[in-house]
Automatic annotation (TrEMBL):
SUPFAM superfamilies from the UniProt entry: Thioredoxin-like
InterPro entries named in the record: DSBA-like_thioredoxin_dom, Thioredoxin-like_sf
Natural source organism: Stenotrophomonas terrae
Protein name per UniProt: Polyketide synthase
DSBA-like thioredoxin domain segment(s): 3-204
Length: 231
């Protein structure tokens, strides 16, 4: 079963949703289908630049004040911690372009380690307050997937991966994806948001049942038609 996930590494519900999805798969136990997971880029804030801006300051301007922002982040942080994720908005997170991080995720895809590198990027931002536009931070995240530092440096010094990332962002627009995370299953079914694990389990179970091949008819059944059975 193919799973295409559009996500951004500075989207808190993308990190929560990632783990809720994985928990949903675990709930299926032995009935869990074999998954082929692909991560795709989405820019939560296309206007963000390479100069870091304190996240609290940026959110306060966007969501109508510091108090409202603190309440919103506290609720989101609680939801993350309920999943065992060390999200901590007191670590001095910054608003910055995630385009370099998405290029790293594209590179990680070439090595087959998007899961490991993506998780490292989420942790760097949400648990450690690291600037995801800094080369050393990206090199550190790449190490989670055993990608050599010099390979990351070479990518960042060029335009490698840029066209592919832009194409992925364009694909999201073509599909009408306006919020993340969005999980597209087998190119036909979409689940949006960080849904509870039970919802993901239910959807996967339903799709697996729909796609299961019909049981083969017995020889006697094959000989029977709408008007009777042949001898």
């Amino acid at each position: 079963m193919r799973i295409d996930i559009w996500s951004d590494v500075v989207c808190p519900w993308c990190w929560i949703g990632k783990h809720r999805f994985q928990r949903g798969v675990e709930l299926l136990g032995e009935d869990a289908p074999q998954l082929d997971v692909h991560w795709h880029p989405f820019l939560l804030d296309p206007e963000a630049g390479t100069t870091p801006v304190p996240l609290m300051e940026a959110y306060a301007a966007k969501f109508g004040g510091v108090e409202r922002t603190q309440q919103m982040l506290a609720q989101t942080q609680s939801a993350a911690q309920a999943m065992g994720l060390p999200m901590d908005f007191s670590q001095g997170q910054v608003k910055v372009s995630t385009l370099p991080a998405h290029r790293l995720l594209w590179l990680a895809g070439q090595y087959g380690v998007q899961e490991q590198v993506g998780e490292a990027l989420f942790r760097a931002h949400f648990a450690e307050g690291r600037n995801l536009a800094e080369p050393q931070v990206l090199i550190g995240a790449a190490a989670a997937g055993d990608i050599p530092a010099e390979r990351v440096q070479a990518m960042l010094a060029s335009d490698e991966g840029l066209a592919e990332v832009q194409a992925g962002i364009g694909q999201a627009q073509a599909l009408g994806i306006q919020s993340v995370p969005t999980f597209v299953i087998n190119g036909q079914y979409a689940v949006q948001g960080g849904q509870p694990p039970e919802v993901f389990a239910q959807v996967l179970r339903k799709i697996a049942a729909e796609q299961a091949p019909a049981p083969a008819a017995s020889q006697d059944e094959q000989a029977c038609g709408p008007d009777g059975c042949s001898v």
